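Hey, I'm writing a tutorial for new members on how sequence and structure tokens pair up, and I'd like a real worked example in the thread rather than a made-up one. If someone can provide the structure for the chain below, I'll link this post from the tutorial.
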Amino acid sequence: MKLACQEGMVPGSSLEEKLENLEKYGYEGIEFWGSNLWERVNEINKATEKSKVKPSTVCAGYGGCLLDPNKAEREKAVEDIKRLLSVAADIGAVGLITVPIFGPPRIPDLSPYKSAVELEKELLLKLLEPLAKHAEKVGSVLLLEPLNRYETHLLRRLQDAVDICQRIGSPNVKIMADFFHMSIEEMDIPNSIREAGNWIAHVHLADSTRLLPGYGHTDFKSGFAALKEVGFANYMALECGIPGDPAVELPKCAQYLRQFM
């Protein structure tokens, strides 16, 4: 397992300085926001080539929505996701973190024919087929992210996302486990991780307060033990608030987490 941090959380006036700080703080990876990231490929490759800190993942940043009733919105999401999957491969990252939909359903409920959620899942499977093929072609992974009930209605537990992955049946469509969302939705975080097994290809770290690990009541020790049991060896990236000076808090957080790794 390797520690990473989102770029926007790291002090530094340039990417090179951020990478230097992350290495000094005890991190091995950096996660990038996806918006217009294709414009930064050369910058990222040049900076990370000389650094021990490598790109871990690309986090969202695409337009449109996969499950919008407007076809143009769906097509925008598909094209942007394809582009960012290619970017992730170009910079050597694991893949692209993808949330199918935020908030409530946008597709109308057609009961008794089919509910909105039934229609959404069928549509999602249709859209993921070409995305899976593109991910396989470029050598990247589409990472489905379950969110908590206050942010989405669809994929909320790890098993919800695993069910979709199993139906797609591609080694390039997997899931991301986020400790903050799991602290709300999973009855037993370690057991949920064990059940998801090797479908987990990336992890987000935040405490129950959505602050840095160590500023809440999440049991990272048992969660990390479960990740080790299922053979997880990829990046775990911080995505959370920092209650203080990042130059003090980020190294302290790395030290806190490494005692469980």
